[in-house]
Fold:
Amino acid sequence: MQSFKENKYFKISLSAFFVIAAAIILFMLVQNTSSVMSALRKFMDIISPFIWGFAFAYLLNYPYKWFLGLFKKAPKFTGKLSLTARRIISLILTYLLFLALVTLFFYIIAPQIVTALSDFIKILPEYLDTLSIEFQAFLYKYLERFGLSMDDIYDVLNKLGEQVSKNFSITSMLNNTLDFVLSLSVKLKNLLLGLIVSVYFLLDKDKFRLSFKKLLYALVPEQKGDKILTILKFTDRTFGGFIVSKVVDSAIIGVLNYLFMAVMNLDYAVLISVLIGVTNVIPFFGPFIGGIPSVLLLLLVNPWDALIFGIFIIILQQFDGNFLGPKLMGDSMGIRAVFVVFAVIVFGGLFGFFGMFVGVPVFVVLYTLFCEWVAARLKQKNIKIQ
Structure:
């Protein structure tokens, strides 16, 4: 006698039930989009320390493995140390290196930012006066063409000033400042908690990996589990290759930029070099994001210096894009330039600066999996396209 669960009508009824239930849930989600998004944001805020912890652990895993590798190269010196001791020492050295780099970054950059803001505040009145004179000359020259007088212009400017005063009152500015400070404090707290969580991720990464494999093979057949692990390994290699090569590439570009500015005795050499190096991690748009503000900053000091730097940064980015970058990254990002632009724009629009950085490796993984799926489908149909 056929069992109840093997009955085809039972299977059809069960499938229909799940489809109807999914449709009802989707309808409720659409009807309560604002509440769902609010709950989702709250949930993301709660788990953000773990997200940051995983991100820190993933990035710091590279120097952590490097320190562990040093122990293997000196077996006579470290032979008496157990594996646990070597891991703990490597972990301590990794976080000391990270904290030293962060401290050095703020120690060097903070004074440069203060100096740049101070110089900008000093120069701003002179620039505003010059701009006002040029603007008035422009108005006097072209007002007659449109049948306007200076009184009409003054009326428009006064109305604009009233609107600005209403929208930017002292109370609203204080409230916005307070909200910004509170939001910043929460983000800093999550970053600090994430850094602490990353210690546990790194210490127990082998146990986490083993637990994940057990859970994976318990949920899916062995063949699918092997396929999923292969995809995850490929994703890890893609992200790892991209991150390491981009960090090295950006460090070299930052150093070359500093050497040029130091030789040419240009102002804000450290600040601009760090800005150029940091923004260079963003594919395609990074040089523009870092180069344009740097040129504008130098323009306030000396237009000739800004011109010299602008020419140099174009040459430097050509060198990076055509020689240094491909040499370091090899074929790890083997996609066309239009896909790079697409990935940066789309992921940047969705996730901001972080999305612009990880958008390319994410797209590479998805694009590779899609190409493999297309190739497999064509092979099944015995179709060869050349």
